[in-house]
Amino acid sequence: MDNQSGSAFAFDGSWREYAPIAFTNLLLTIVTLGFYRFWATTRTRRFLWSRTQFIDDRLEWTGTGKELFKGFIMVLVLLGLPFLFLQFGVQALVIRGFPKVAAVMGFAAFVLIFYLGGVARFRALRYRLSRTYWHGIRGGSDDGGWSYGWSYMWRNIVGMIPLYLMVPWAMISLWNERWNKMSFGPHGFQCSARVKPVFKRFLLFYLAPFLIVLVVLAYIATIGGMIGNVWLRTNYPPAIAAIALVVIILGVYAILGLIALAYYAAFLREGNNTLKLERLDFGFEATTDDWLKLFFGDILLVVGTLGIGWIFIQYRHWKFFITHLEAYGEIDLNALTQSTTRESRHGEGLLDAMDVGAF
Question: Which helix (H) or strand (E) holds 208?
């Protein structure tokens, strides 16, 4: 099949269609003290996937709330209870005069959590691909993600050691490794994202704190401020000096946020623009301006509705992603056979328990 014209991806859902699902999910989650959220996630995904079209067919989500709940309970029993006992055990060791043993146990627990965080990200993507169908074909991976957990650890450590300057390398290399182990149907994904296209924006974010120091020094020199317990005298009224300080602090946070958003936008463009599946090339066209509109739109929605609009955030973000996602090339449906990868039956319990990743 040849993709000749128009956008390969399209989303035709509306917030009016989604509203009954969102409000019902919210109500049932509250009534069940949070337990319904697994089924709420499934209902949301089923709606969003069904309103998403790729070329000539819609996506289908086949995951269940039971899978998500089962995965969460398994992780809670296998990891949550041992960590609970470990926490009390460390405290008991300190009280009994064994601080070194307690420190070793605490460090081991931190390393294990760090490692499992990487495994969780890998297995969540694998699960979502295995439950996403198009033309009756699904994705997945035969890799369990255990080796990715080690890569996640050492690459992040290497990224932080040289004053965090190699963080972009760690993010890009992990993105490539994860996608290169995934597949859809009989075809494996290929990703070759590069560090160079995103490093300039990261460097701008990296150098921003030095700019903050200069701004603070300028404030102290021109308006006044505190150095230790000494207030520098100034010709400006204290109220004006205080307001100026608040404006500077808010401005600093705003600038850092905008620079971080610009880096994230460049990172996702590079990651998706280098993603391939057989003869199909993917692209992601969202610019920093597009992300800003989404971000401020979220704020206005939540603030303007006194928090109720939060239930529409998932809908907005999925629509944003699909609207800016593109694909170029050819798909041979005759050669697209069903994936033979293993299907996980435990949902995203590890990811959900550790509170990482997207919905």
Answer: helix 196-222
CA dihedral 27, 31, 37, 38 (to 10 degrees): -120
SS3 81: helix
pLDDT, tens digit, for every residue of 245-270?
677 777 777 888 888 999 999 999 99
Handedness of CA 164, 165, 170, 176 (dihedral sign): positive
Q: Are 23 and 47 in contact (CB under 8 A)?
A: no
Q: What is the pLDDT of residues 133-182, one digit of tens each?
A: 999 999 999 998 999 999 999 999 999 988 899 999 999 999 999 999 99
**Closest alpha carbon to 198 in 118, 264, 291:** 264
Measured torsion, CA atoms of residues 26, 356, 141, 115, in degrees rounded to the nearest 10:
-150
Helix or strand holding residue 72 (H, E)? helix 65-75
Give the CA distances from residue 288 to residues 191, 284, 295, in Å, rounded to whole numbers and listed in that order. Answer: 22, 12, 10
CA 193, CA 269: separation in Å to the nearest integer? 9
Alpha-carbon dihedral 183, 331, 53, 130, rounded to 10 degrees: -20
Tell me the pLDDT band of 5, cut-offs 50, 70 and 90.
very low
> What single-letter DSSP state applies at residue 195?
S
pTM summary value: 0.86
